[in-house]
Amino acid sequence: MSVLVYAESSEGKYKKVAFEATSYGKQVADQLGVDLHVLTIGGENPSELGAYGASNIISVNNVTNNSDAKVVANVIKETANNKGATVIIIDSSANGLSITPLVAVNLNAGLATNVVAVPSSTTPFVVKRKAFSNKAFNSTQISSDVKVIGLAKNSFGILENKVEASVESFDATIISSGITSTSLDKSTGTVTIADAETVVSGGRGLKGPENWGMIEELATVLGAATACSKPVSDLGWRPHNEHVGQTGKPVSSNLYIAIGISGAIQHLAGINASKVKVVINTDPEAPFFKAADYGIVGDAFEVVPSLIEKLKAFKAQNA
Amino acid sequence: MKILVCISHVPDTTSKINFTENDSKFDSNGVQFVINPYDEFALTRAMWFKEKQGASVTVVNVGSSATEPTLRKALAIGADDAIRVNAEPLDGFFVAKQLAEVAKNGSYDLVLAGKESIDYNGGMVPGMMSAILDCNFVTACVGLEIEGSSATITREIDGGKETLSADLPLVIGGQKGLVEEKDLRIPNMRGIMMARKKPLNIVEPVDFEPTTTTVSFEKPEAKGACTMIDAGNLDELISLLHNEAKVI
Ligand SMILES: Cc1cc2nc3c(=O)[nH]c(=O)nc-3n(C[C@H](O)[C@H](O)[C@H](O)COP(=O)(O)OP(=O)(O)OC[C@H]3O[C@@H](n4cnc5c(N)ncnc54)[C@H](O)[C@@H]3O)c2cc1C
Ligand SMILES: Nc1ncnc2c1ncn2[C@@H]1O[C@H](COP(=O)(O)O)[C@@H](O)[C@H]1O
Q: For an engineered disulfide with B211, which of A8, A23, A144, B120 has Cβ 3.0 to 4.6 Å away?
């Protein structure tokens, strides 16, 4: 018996979710009293994973495209079989979400996705998951011998746990995949909503796209991603991939700043998982205040520029 | 081209979520059920293939008879026929198994599903179906064109988009972008009349032991009251965010 984590990398670099999945895997392995194996495909510096408890690393070097779900799922299956893994943990990056269901079928395993915590019990094996678009949690029992866990992003966190990492190279069996990638269009330099620690979000209260300069500036000062409510993207003020909410992107950042957003239930569903929420709104009755941690009743056009100046001063002092 | 669209029957996005029987069951009392929002994009894209490329469109749901109004709505939007697999959707693997069986028996070229359903947010069913059927799979799909037996697909990735090509048969987990929101269809009177006469076939499930069960539900802890800060005192906000919340 062992626990297997798949640590995703992109262009050779590990993502935060890889460290989070490794930290989580370490805890589950300790809880079960078994070994942890961490699988990586194309990560340049596997021993980095040792900082989060990965003592046994399996590095696959003969797979060139780790964004092909079918190929990666087969490598995970092969490794799980080689190592006798009974719990397999995969993150919720875009690739992770594609791979997870395939691995479960390949291993004939019970699957729980959107998992937010270590098992509350190991016999029976019960994990807590997000459900109903963050309006509730659900404790799921997995009864199959092999169990696959899809770990929700930013819910467990990263735990430093430095160990000596041994790295074993492995040539995996590569299956033919029917899918070819023909082009990639990646925005570079900007923080994505999914990865961001802080998100600055604007709503219809900002009146028009010409007023987003201050939102972007506030985001730059905070190293944050920008986001918006649904009507804002529907009106074409902002790109669709910035729309957050139940039918848009989910946000699970540490800090979410909502400016000129009323706080409709569908919007809140997408940001419930964020830890600290700040709301700036002219209307003291705006429903968002009920879901917020810190609230300012005020006009965004006055509050935001002033907040930017004060934050700049704060950053300069605390740099 | 034969298209199968998987329709999940979920609480309307405005629903308050409550539980009964000691928090072990979802309380459907007073809850309005709708077609899962992501599946609406898939269904509308399927209608486009029907009108422009002569595809036939079947909609399918795994559920009890309570889901039939949702399937009728999909028929009213324009699907040709519907299938209901007569079983409670016990877990994602179980549902995928049932849907894969339907897909196999009907030899569909293209299976369109949503990227996740907004009740259990599993994001499991389409991928599991593709693995059971051993065919190609792309999720978080925001663009799909079909020519002959090959598809050009755009999917969302972290921080961008990727364009892919694949041969049919294919399973897609779709979302907004497959069609635009303004192009989503709502049933009109004629559609509703016609839907009454369209076939809704009920099939019995294949045997499959679910591998997961829901033990209990809980709601997030009630949040403490919001700390209000005067708009003229932003230094206090910064200090609270730094010292109390420790997020800046
Ligand atoms: C099926 C369905 C799914 C949906 N999914 C989503 C979703 O995923 N995400 C989402 O966001 N919405 C979603 N919605 C829409 C949602 O119901 C709301 O309509 C939407 O969130 C409102 O956006 P808003 O707060 O930006 O705009 P409004 O409701 O117009 O609110 C604007 C706010 O700005 C404030 N304001 C005005 N001027 C200023 C100023 N100068 N300074 C500060 N504040 C100001 C106002 O007081 C008001 O509170 C969905 C709706 C449906 C029916
Ligand atoms: N009971 C069901 N019947 C038909 N299709 C379903 C069912 N459950 C899920 N699906 C499909 O699978 C997608 C993803 O669902 P899920 O894996 O439950 O998040 C949904 O958007 C539907 O297209």
A: A144
Residue nearest atom 36 of ligand 1, based on CA coordinates: A205
Q: Which residues, in sequence order, are CB contacts of A172 under 8 Å at separation 6+?
A: A60, A62, A63, A74, A75, A78, A79
User: Helices B68-77 and B37-53, interaxial angle, to 10°?
Assistant: 40
> Residue A90 corresponds to which tokens in the numbers above?
């995969």
* Type of residue at B53: Q
Q: Among B7, B210, B181, which Cα is nearest to B94's? A: B210
Sign, CA torsion A243/A246/A252/A253: positive
A314: nearest CA partner in chain B: B238
| Residue A270 CB–ligand 1 contact under 6 Å | yes
d(CA A227, CA A251): 9
DSSP annotation of A121 reads: B
Q: What is the pLDDT of residues B28-38, one digit of tens each?
A: 999 999 999 99
> Greatest CA span in chain A, whole angstroms?
61
The verdict on the CB of residue A260 being under 6 Å from ligand 1 is: yes
Q: ω into residue A124 within 30 of 0, thus cis? A: yes
Specify if B185 maps to a domain.
yes
Output the CA–CA distances (angstroms, integers) from residue B182 to A5, B44, B185, B186, in the order listed: 42, 11, 8, 11
- Provide the shortest C-alpha distance from residue A150 to chain B (in Å): 9
Single out the residue of A308, A317, A114, A303 nearest to residue A224, CA to CA. A308
CA atoms within 13 A on the CB side of A168: 13
pLDDT exceeds cutoff 80 at A187: no
Q: Cβ contact (<8 Å) for B164 and A181?
A: yes
Of A170, A185, A215, the one marking the end of a domain is A170
Residue B161 domain-assigned? yes
Q: Is residue B222 over pLDDT 90?
A: no
Q: What is the CATH number of the domain that holds B199?
A: 3.40.50.620
Sequence-separated (6 or more) residues with CB below 8 Å from residue B232: none
Residue whose Cα lies nearest atom 14 of ligand 1: it is A266
Cα dihedral across residues A65, B151, B185, B173: positive or negative = negative
Please, are residues B155 and B140 in contact by the beta-carbon 8 Å criterion? Answer: yes
Tokens 């490598």 -> residue: A75
Residue B231 in any domain: the answer is no
Q: What is the pLDDT of residues A206-239, one digit of tens each?
A: 999 999 999 999 999 999 999 999 999 999 999 9
CB B59 within 8 A of CB B43: yes
> What's the 3-state SS for A52-98?
HCCCEEEEECCCCCCCCHHHHHHHHHHHHHHHCEEEEEECCCHHHHH
- CB–CB contact A192 B214 (8 Å): no
CB distance B124–A101 less than 8 Å?
Answer: yes
List the residue whose alpha carbon is closest to atom 6 of ligand 2. B8
Percentage of chain B exceeding pLDDT 90: 93
> Range of B197's domain?
2-215
Same-domain pairing of A142 and A224: no
In three-state secondary structure terms, B171 is: strand
Contact assignment for A296 to B237 by CB distance below 8 Å: yes
